[in-house]
Each structure stands twice: as structure tokens, then as C-alpha cells.
Amino acid sequence: MDLARINISTTQAQTGIQSQRPPMSIHQPQADMHIDQEFGSIRISTTASQLFIDQTEAFADADLKGPLRRSDEFAARSMQNVMQYIAKTTQQGDQMKKIEHGTNAIASIAKQNGERPTKQINYGTVPEHMGKVSIDYRPSDISIQADRSEPTIRVHKNDPQIHIPRWESNVYLQQKNHIDFSVSGGSINRQL
């Protein structure tokens, strides 16, 4: 007799996991920096340079003289002429004193007084040389003063901005479990 057979087939349950891992983001804002600096001041002061040119002696060579100098020179020449006249008169007086010795003093004195002075010709330049012009130069003085101001620096740091989203995992039933029973084969005694 062919007995019936029971076939049992099972399917196991399967679970599935679905995960989401969004990326993390980090943003770092730049620091805020403020720099302030006042303008420095600079002061420059100068004194005037001075140039002195004295041409008095050069002009005197060209006979361009002031009235005071002219009067001083005239007085000096007059004094010299007076002294020469006194010396000449004294010398001629001494000659006249010796007339009794038989000297021809009157003729000698007349000859001296009657002669014309010899003329002299000289070549000259006006002024005689450049040493007659006096040049004096005083350069200017320069004073420089600079004030330096220090910069003011302020830095404000900004914290990083970090964004971390949650990671999620979803667990679900991908396949249900189940059992199948089937009968195969001959007859079944149902009297039992």
C-alpha cells in the first residue's frame, strides 16, 4: 500500500535594513579684523639760506665810493701832502741855511720846484682781482620731526558652524515566514 506523505516546506522570515547617512557639514566663517591707524604727522621747518656778496672794494677800484669813504681817503691824502710839504720846506730851509758856505742853494731850489713830475702809465683791470669781491654763504638748516602712531588691531573670532544630521536606520520585514503543508502519495486512511 502506498502511504501518503506529508511534505512540509518552510520559508524563513527576512528582515531588511535601510540606513540614511547624510553628510556632515562644517563651515568656518573668517575672523573679523579691524585695523585703525591714525595718520602720522610730519613737520619740516627750514631757515632761509643767506648769501652775502660784498663788492665794496671792487667798486672802489672803479672809483665808485661812498661819501664817507671818499672824505676819509681825501683826509688821508691831505695829511700825506701836508707831511710831504713840511718835509720839503724843512729840507729847502736847511739848504738856505748853508748859503753862506757858497752853495748855489737858490738855483738848486728853483730847479727842484720848476721840474714837472714824470708821468707814469700803468695797465690795470677793474677790479684788480676777484679777491676784492667777498662772498659768504650760510646754508639753511632743515629740521624734520615725525610722529608715528601705533595701529589699533581688533580681532573677533567666529566659531565654526558644524551641522551633523541624524543617521537613521529603518528595519523592515522584507519576507514573511510561512509553512506549507502538502500531502502526496496514495490513499489516506481517514479512519484513524
TrEMBL record:
Pfam families: DUF6470
Name used for this protein in its record: YviE
